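[audit] Reproducing an earlier prediction to check determinism. Same input, same settings, fresh worker. If the tokens differ from the archived copy the diff job will pick it up downstream; this log only records the rerun itself.
[audit] input (328 residues):
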Amino acid sequence: MSYNIPRLSFAHLPTPIEELTRLTSSLRGPRLLVKRDDLTGLAFGGNKTRKLEFLIAEAQAQGTKMLISGGAIQSNHCRQTAAAAARYGFECTLVLTGEYPKRPSANFLLNQLFGAKIITVADRKDRDQVLQETFDNAVVDGKKPYLVPYGGSSPTGALAYAFAVEEIIQQNINADWIVFGTSSGGTHAGLVLGQRIFNFNGKILGISIDEPEAQLKTHVSDLASQASERFGRRIDFTPDDVLANENYCQSGYGVFGKGEREAIDLFASNEGLLLDPVYTSRAAAGMIDLIRKGFFQKEETVLFLHTGGQPALFADRYSEELIKDNLD
């Protein structure tokens, strides 16, 4: 079935699904697969590229001249947003939380290469205010700005992962579970919506990166409900329709701990596959722990959604941690 939803086409789709044979054997658990959304193509790829196909189409329809967005200093979302702005001829301003680095690296460096103007704020609680002021100033300047939400997580952005579910079904993968990292909720909401619309029979489990479980379930169900209207009829999702696990985010956003270190090592040493230090490593750490605890049945198939983010491995704060571990 086709839907009249504005969308550009620049992601490298469909992304492959690969067997994780050696990791499955190492963990002695369920059959593990990985959906390689780190290979979506734009600026080293990642899950935000799918969302930007819909968001940029919406921005073009509104006649915008500038994209504005925000995130952490090493935001993967902002890196892909800056790249999309460059590709489609928009100005781009990013409001990033953290100190302006003396030596730009990783995503921050890439943002500069894509020509984005970068504003840094010391505290996350001030970011919304600065973001709104930046947007208002751009309106006064006649830029017709488009505010790309954090993580691309709006009803428009969430549509991308509803269609990703359709893509997974078309790849003839009978997964019992899809496991991934969830934070701003757009990917999660899209998957929940796609599960319902395209009749995916598996379960959708988000491993929280930084949000309390109850808050995530409420936000994701609301976002999925809003996004459903784009398909012609509203579906009222409830928090009970959303599966999330908050047990692996207690250390805080961006904190690189033992679980994340082990997940990166296991994926790299068994499969030659790199995880990022913030999102996929935490999601994988949660999945690995759940496997060891017997949460998944051994005869089940678990599809890990790799949402990208590997450039952050080259940020000084994370690369130093990885090097230190190897030297210890």
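[audit] rerun output stored. Observation attached for the diff report: The domain at 49-151 is CATH 3.40.50.1100 (Rossmann fold).
[audit] end
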